[in-house]
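Need a sequence for this fold. Nothing fancy.
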C-alpha cells in the first residue's frame, strides 16, 4: 500500500465525522428557526406572561391602571418581538438540539461513559429551567418592587393656590428595556444553576476534587461576589440573593464531588486496585500510571546511595 493510500484511508473517518457534525448542526439550526417562527407568531401571549411580575408589583402598590410599557423608538416593538422569539425559540428547540449533540457524541463513547455522561445531559436543562423559574417567580418580583419604590405622587395644580408643588415620579418603562432586564435575570440565574452540574462532571473526570474546591472557598466567595455585581442591577437585595444562591450551589457541588470520589474508591476496591485504607489518600487515577519497574528499582536500590 502506498503512502498516499494510507493517508486517504486515515482521512476517511475524519471526513465522515465532519459530515455527521454538519448534518447535526443543520438539523439543530433548522429546529431553532422553526421554533423561533412559532414563537414569533405567539409573541404577544409570551410578552404578557413575562410582564406578569411587573403588573403584580404595580397592583400591590395600588396602581391598578394599565401596566403597559411604552415604545420609545418606532422600531422598538419589532425588536421586542424578535427578542422574545429568540429566547422562546432557544428554549423550545433546546431538547432537540441536545438530542442531536448526544447522537453525535454517543457513538464514540463506551457504555460506562454513556451511563456517566447521560445524567449530566439530562440534569443540565432541568437545572437551567429551575434557575430561570427561581429568577422569574422569586427574584424579579422583589427587584421590581424595590425599583418601583422610588415613585412618588405629585401635586396636581388646579384652580386652588398651592404654595409649593411636588413633582410626581411615575413609572413609564420602555418595553425593550424591561424585556432586556427580565431576560438578563432569567439567563443569569439559569446559567448559575449549572454550577453543580459542571463541577460534578469535572469531578467525575478527575479534573477537580472536593478537597481542592474546599481549599479555594475564599476565592470562590470573591468570584461569586463579583459575578453578582456584574449580572444583576445595582440593588443590594438582588445581589445578596444571587450570592446566597450561587454560594449554596457551590457547597452542594462540593458534596456531590465528594460523593463521586467515594463511589470511585468503592469501585476501585471492588476491582482490587485499592488494597488498604492508606491507598485512599493517594490519587487512584494517577496510581494506574505508575511503572512497576520503577517501583522495583527503587526497592532494590541500596539505602546508602
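Here you go.
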Amino acid at each position: 500500500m502506498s503512502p498516499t493510500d494510507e493517508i486517504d484511508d486515515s482521512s476517511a473517518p475524519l471526513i465522515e465525522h465532519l459530515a455527521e457534525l454538519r448534518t447535526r448542526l443543520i438539523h439543530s439550526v433548522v429546529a431553532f428557526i422553526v421554533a423561533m417562527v412559532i414563537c414569533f407568531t405567539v409573541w404577544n401571549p409570551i410578552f404578557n406572561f413575562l410582564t406578569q411580575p411587573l403588573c403584580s408589583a404595580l397592583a400591590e402598590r395600588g396602581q391598578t391602571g394599565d401596566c403597559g410599557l411604552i415604545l420609545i423608538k418606532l422600531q422598538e416593538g419589532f425588536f421586542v418581538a424578535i427578542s422574545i422569539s429568540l429566547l422562546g425559540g432557544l428554549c423550545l428547540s433546546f431538547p432537540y438540539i441536545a438530542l442531536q449533540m448526544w447522537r453525535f457524541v454517543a457513538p464514540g463513547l463506551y457504555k460506562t461513559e454513556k451511563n456517566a455522561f447521560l445524567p449530566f445531559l439530562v440534569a443540565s436543562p432541568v437545572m437551567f429551567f429551575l434557575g430561570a423559574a427561581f429568577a422569574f417567580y422569586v427574584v424579579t418580583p422583589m427587584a421590581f418592587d424595590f425599583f418601583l419604590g422610588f415613585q412618588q405622587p405629585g401635586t396636581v395644580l388646579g384652580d386652588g393656590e398651592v404654595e409649593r408643588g411636588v413633582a410626581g415620579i411615575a413609572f413609564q418603562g420602555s418595553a425593550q428595556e424591561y424585556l432586556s432586564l427580565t431576560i438578563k435575570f432569567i439567563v443569569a440565574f439559569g446559567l448559575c444553576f449549572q454550577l453543580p452540574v459542571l463541577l460534578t462532571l469535572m469531578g467525575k473526570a478527575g479534573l477537580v476534587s472536593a478537597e481542592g474546591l474546599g481549599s479555594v472557598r475564599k476565592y470562590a466567595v470573591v468570584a461569586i461576589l463579583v459575578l453578582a455585581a456584574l449580572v444583576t442591577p445595582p440593588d443590594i437585595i438582588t445581589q445578596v440573593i444571587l450570592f446566597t444562591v450561587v454560594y449554596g450551589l457551590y457547597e452542594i457541588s462540593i458534596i456531590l464531588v465528594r460523593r463521586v470520589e467515594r463511589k470511585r474508591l468503592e469501585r476501585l476496591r471492588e476491582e482490587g486496585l485499592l488494597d488498604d485504607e492508606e491507598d485512599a489518600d493517594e490519587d487512584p487515577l494517577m496510581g494506574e500510571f505508575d511503572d512497576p519497574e520503577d517501583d522495583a528499582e527503587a526497592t532494590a536500590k541500596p539505602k546508602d546511595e
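For context: Residues 242 and 248 are 10 Å apart (CA to CA).
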